[in-house]
Amino acid sequence: MTDEAPGARADDERLILLLVGAVGAGKGTQASILSRELGLPHLASGNLFRAAMAAGTPLGEEARVYMERGELVPDEITIGMFMEELGAPAAARGAILDGFPRTVGQARALDTTLADQGERIRRVIYIEVPTDTLVRRVAGRWVCPECGTPYHEDTDPPKVAGRCDRDGTALRQRDDDRPEVVRARLERQVPPMLAVVEHYERAGIVDRLDGTQPIEGVTGEILSRIGHGGGA
Ligand code: AMP
């Protein structure tokens, strides 16, 4: 009686959740909390590119040029890399997508791949934060190059300015977190991001959340929107 593809029933469908937000909106933070809460992998395209750069792969070297200018890496490079991660066994039950898709071209490629497998994105969570707040949040981020501990000038400063609390190493800023690069990233990346939100609004699957509220507030709202109530 049914023409559903095997494995595509609603109750065993992969939970694919997409987090959208400008740099500094807190989508990485939310993605890692949700990954723990829901037991699903956090797939972040920015992290995949940074790992490829650190490993010195050809893909990493190609991406580096764009990332250092605060530009988007071209779709031809990004789509293939991300689809491979989404098809890996680690994502067999679903995934939290952070930073992909970032263009309508990427969104269409993702939609088509999922539709071919009888799947779809469950919800798109758009975390909204005003631009001034974003620049302040991102340009204040520092990290210890030795142990990776993150700090923030305003909200989580080290005890001694510019030094890691754990090992005293001089803190560094991610190259693309410098204020001028942050502004470039916002200018170039917000318009395509808004186009992605519009693309999914047409499918009626977008939830807009206020990203200026405390971290737990945003998490609670996301969990309730996807029907996980957050234990409440
Ligand atoms: P993020 O850590 O998400 O801020 O990403 C860091 C950088 O990686 C971005 O500024 C882009 O240059 C690149 N990047 C990450 N995800 C994508 C994507 N989906 N499409 C194109 N470029 C991306």
Task: Furnish the topology, listing elements before pairings.
Blueprint: E1 15-20, H1 27-38, E2 42-44, H2 45-54, H3 58-68, H4 75-86, E3 94-98, H5 104-116, E4 123-128, H6 131-139, E5 141-143, E6 150-152, H7 179-201, E7 206-210, H8 215-225
Parallel strand pairs: 1-3, 1-4, 2-3, 4-7
Antiparallel strand pairs: 5-6
Helix pairs in contact: 1-8, 2-3, 4-5, 6-7
Bound molecules: adenosine monophosphate.
The site of adenosine monophosphate (AMP) has 17 residues, from helix 2 and helix 3.
Give a written overview of the molecule.
The protein has 232 residues and is an alpha/beta fold. It has a single domain (15-225), classed as Rossmann fold (3-Layer(aba) Sandwich). It has eight helices and seven strands, in the order βαβαααβαβαββαβα. The protein has helices at 27-38, 45-54, 58-68, 75-86, 104-116, 131-139, 179-201, 215-225, and strands at 15-20, 42-44, 94-98, 123-128, 141-143, 150-152, 206-210. The strands form two sheets. Strands 2-3-1-4-7 form a five-stranded parallel sheet, with helices on both faces. The chain has a two-stranded antiparallel ribbon with strand order 5-6. Helix 2 crosses helix 3 (58-68) and helix 6 crosses helix 7 (179-201). The N and C termini lie far apart (39 Å). Bound molecules: adenosine monophosphate. Adenosine monophosphate binds next to helix 2 and helix 3.
Report the β-strand fraction as a percent range: 5-15%
**Based on helices, strands and strand pairing, what is the structural class?**
alpha/beta
Question: pLDDT below 50 for ≥5 consecutive residues: which ranges?
Answer: 1-9
Helix content: 40-55%
Shape: globular
What is the average of the pLDDT values? 90
Number of strands: 7
> What is the name of the CATH topology?
Rossmann fold
Radius of gyration: 18 Å
* Biggest β-sheet description: 5 strands, parallel
Count of individual helical segments: 8
CATH architecture: 3-Layer(aba) Sandwich
